[in-house]
Amino acid sequence: MYFFQLFIYISIILFSISCNNQNKGLGDSRNFEFIYQVDLEATNQKVELWIPIAQTNKVQKITNMYLNSGSLSCEELVETNHFNHYYYCFNDAGLFESMTLSYSFHVERFEHGAIQYSSLNPENYDRGTNHMTVPEGDIFSDILLDYNLSPEDIEAVYKYVLNDMHYGKPKSKDNMYYSNPWLSGNRLYGKKKVSRDKVVKLYQDSKATGSNYTFGNGNSIYACDIGVGNCTDYHSYFISLLRTMDIPTRFHMGFSISDEDTGKVGGYHCWADFYVEGKGWSPVDISEADKVPEKSDYFFGTVDKNRVELTTGRDLELKNYKKYVNFFIYPLIEGTDFTKRFSYKNI
Predict the structure, then answer these.
(1) H or E stretch including 200?
(2) Residue of 55, 113, 147, 236 with fewest CB within 10 Å of its CB?
(3) Contacts for 200 with CB less than 8 Å, ≥ 6 apart
(4) Does domain 27-111+332-346 have CATH number 2.60.40.2250?
(5) CB–CB of 314/129 below 8 Å?
(6) How confident is the model over 270-307, as pLDDT tens digits?
(7) pTM for this one?
(8) Could you state, in order of their start, the residue ranges of all structural domains in the chain?
(9) Hey, which residues does 74 pair with through a beta bridge?
């Protein structure tokens, strides 16, 4: 009996140590409900819709998921590149009247540093994407050499991207991002030394031609050349540099929320993490560090609890969707017009 009790006691201690080691990168948590809504117009055309599903992992717990899909038939599926979950919804007969699809869930999200994910294979994240939005080598090899960046000092790569990029999304000359404090008429940006007018022209050209050579597409070549963009561009640039050094690096898509108890969410947010043997996956949020310079040290190796992740990775393949998905956060819809709305409230 004594030895049996001793065995149980030791097992409990070892289990506790194991749990503490797995969770040692976690900080404070926040609990909130997230509401993802899509307003769909009536149509007599077949309607298809794809939306991402948040998943529980080491840094967030997802509960109380509820989908109100109206007259759409929906199924939950998993894509095979990164194992993201998503709803595929459709109605072959179209929509007799306008409707709102609503997907809500509760989140417990943790501030966190480096995390060990036992089911994640780092080797899947140390090469460029298939469709070259996040390539490796070539110009990125030159940058690593020119700026003496190495795998032994990943923070220096983080700071290089932070200093080389500038946050801005100007769609026209009367857009808020065209002027101070975002962009300046007295400054040139990126390796190609372009003006803010050139940034606007590249955006307008991309809309006319279907090119992804503009901000907001996570095109690391664009980010390097032009140096102005949003979170997708910062982190794609970072990923290309690290993968060129054979350091596994992942792309995360989700939403940030404010410190208020409730509110609307204007758009997506993204960040990255990189893998170091024996330490795990360390997060970075470079674009947020650029917008909040006093927290630049914090956002290398830590991200806050005011966010929720919905998907990871690039080049996703979804059921019945006819092309690769560059990254997946907003609804993908065919057959009708729509608007999207996001909100949250503390619980």
Answers:
(1) helix 196-209
(2) 147
(3) 170, 171, 172, 173, 175, 178
(4) yes
(5) yes
(6) 999 999 999 999 999 999 999 999 999 999 999 999 99
(7) 0.91
(8) 27-111+332-346, 116-304
(9) 89
